[in-house]
């Protein structure tokens, strides 16, 4: 289980950062009409990934 946590933590952080980047690109390039997605959706998804990272870190501490 500890190996899964070690893999999941950086993956969640990376996906969170990519979600923020995608949201900024959608906002700056005015792609929301083309992609039918609002830029704030990317920030909500990023928040979910960062919460996943925090929860994973706490679970990792509980395993030790």
Characterization of the model:
By secondary structure, this protein is mainly α. The protein is built from 3 helices and no strands. Helix 1 runs antiparallel to helix 3 (39-63). The longest helix has 27 residues, at 2-28. The radius of gyration is 15 Å and the shape is elongated.
Features:
mainly alpha; 0% strand; 64 residues; elongated; single chain
Chain-wise SSE layout:
Layout: H1 2-28, H2 32-35, H3 39-63
Helix pairs in contact: 1-3
Can I get a quick summary?
By secondary structure, the chain is mostly helical.
The number of strands is 0
Basic shape: elongated
User: Residue-averaged pLDDT, rounded?
Assistant: 94
- Run of helices and strands: HHH
State the helix count.
Answer: 3
What is the radius of gyration computed over CA atoms, rounded to a whole number of angstroms?
15 Å
- What portion of the residues fall into strands of 2 or more residues? under 5%
Structural class: mainly alpha
Largest sheet: none
Give start-end ranges of low-pLDDT stretches: none
Q: Please report the distance between the alpha carbons of the first and last residues.
A: 11 Å
- The share of residues in helices is over 70%
